[in-house]
Amino acid sequence: MKFDHRFQLREQAPSRRVYAADGVTMRLDFFDHILRVALIRDGAALFPTWSVCPGGGEVPLEGRDRLSTEGFSPCSPAAEEDERTLRFSLDGVDFTVEKKNFRITARNDRGILYADRSGLGYNFDGELGEGFVHCTRREEGERIFGLGDKGGAVNKSGRSFTLAATDAMGFSAKDSDPLYKQLPFYICENGAGSYGVFYDTYSNGRADFGRELDNYFEPFSSIRFEEESMVFYLILGTTAQIVRRFTALCGGAAAVPDWAWRYCGSTMEYTDAPDADRRLRAFAERCEKEGVRAGGFYLSSGYTQIGEQRCVFHWNTDKIPSPEGLADFFRERGMELVANVKPAFLTTHPLYDELAEKGYFLRYADGRAACFPFWGGMASYLDFTNRGAYEFWKDCVREQLVEKGYRHIWNDNNEYDVLDADVLADGFGHETRARLIRPLFSYLMARASREACLETMGEDFVPFNVSRCAIAPTQRVATTWTGDNRTDFEDLRYNHRQAMTMALSGFSFFGADVGGFAGPQPDRELFLRWLQYGVFTPRFVLHSWKPGEQSTMPWLYPELMDEVRRLFDLREKLLPYLKSEYERKRRLYEPLIRPVFLDEPGYDCESDCFFCGDEILVCPVFDRGAEAVTVTLPRCEKLWRLRGGREAFSGGTAVTVPCLPTDEPVWFVRARGKDA
Prior knowledge:
about 675 residues; alpha+beta; eight-stranded antiparallel β-sheet; six-stranded parallel β-sheet; about 25% strand; globular
């Protein structure tokens, strides 16, 4: 009956309970620190998951059963149950499940930690619209963190967001939504503590954390997805523990080669030029001339052009006469090239008809390839859930890139702008609507690229794989960045807050395009301030597209080269620390850069300063015209020493340090032992 669903116990085991009512099954699985909840409609098949991978390793190519318990540490909480309620304790939290409408409430000694909305928290019979809907109790003053690369303030409370990935070129880091990642994971901090929720789905959705009001219900937050059934994980612990546990749940992050920690160049200007080979070689020579140590260069898609169109895996030998020779030229100078690839094949691509005939594209029910606007033409997306298409991609990466010397892959433009409900994907033999799994294609694309590199170079090789679109499991196979950002002081600050949000979402190796991708050239002040910040971020890449203007390169302002060299030399000095801290943090499932409040609860979550590893506190400047930095040093360390200074400052002390754009950035180190 609408709004009155009475669930009855159907199955139980020490670590599992299954209930049913009105054509819906609710399943509870008990793990260490985690309660898994599944809402499954009768007759519905759960699409597999690639996101959940406890214990590390990798899931089968065809995915993992979403209700699998493999790799988890099941627990068997003592339970009390009658006709109306189920009671149990998990990780020191007391749970009550009211069987009417299956309302879950979790309490600790400080109060209600988590609760489904009273009245109706789930969309059992269409009462709350279409798709899966989950409404939870909202507390005044609670803080919300996560959701991937969302812009604006770090605390997302009081806002609503589209849960989807899109190509948001030139986005505002303060206001634009959605962006390039799709990560339905958030952390809620309230008066009783913290909890995290991860929805194991790839379907589009909407999250609302306080904008929506309904006079007939208590204050609530809501999550909506197109998928009808749903599996979600309620993760317990402190905020820092939840970040670790979520990262571990998804299998952690891949290793990164040493060279990728150095500055890397990138611009469409060079590869779009008719003399691309000369321009690229000149970049490497200019780095040597200017004393700038570079690890590599991101090879934009201009190398694939046929006329004005970009045809993935096609080498334009008028621009680059010898791809092998170019790769050798860079490697002889200690630099790697990261080749750009795109998952869409224009209808004019030389391979298009062959791929369409083989059924390797997303398609309609009658077998026709689905076409979409893409980079100046119409194109079809490769269906990475088709095993033949997946292997075709690997063959192309191996033959056209890796064997020619391009051993690191930049998986770009992989947001899959597919909204048409009639478009189908193979689903590894389980046909499904492509729009329900849009961001999954990006992960499978990056995974295929990585496998091609490893199978060619050997399992001991460490590939540097990059993916613009990302979901929860992407870190296992690729690094990422925040996409095509904008050149502006405000965007610099909000790119930083976006980075802190990504850290709280479990991302480890990432960064923004230093100097901004779209918009005007950065002026001298903004250029130096962005470099001061960027040297402390894992990904240190100057990347831009400034039609009619010079691209953002280290030598953008020749008169500033002394200051620029000092900043690049600082990055070089930081490399051993960054690499060792990343490896240590990777093993601990922790982000390398992160907001201070993750270590010191109560610290301002919107602060500009942040931790880089465990030993460095970075205090950047994001305001035009500023000449100093004022920071309240975290209390989590007794003493801090300003880098380059002799005086030690007590934790909790407010310190003002002069910092002009031409100065070294302001950063503190923990003053321990003899240093104290």
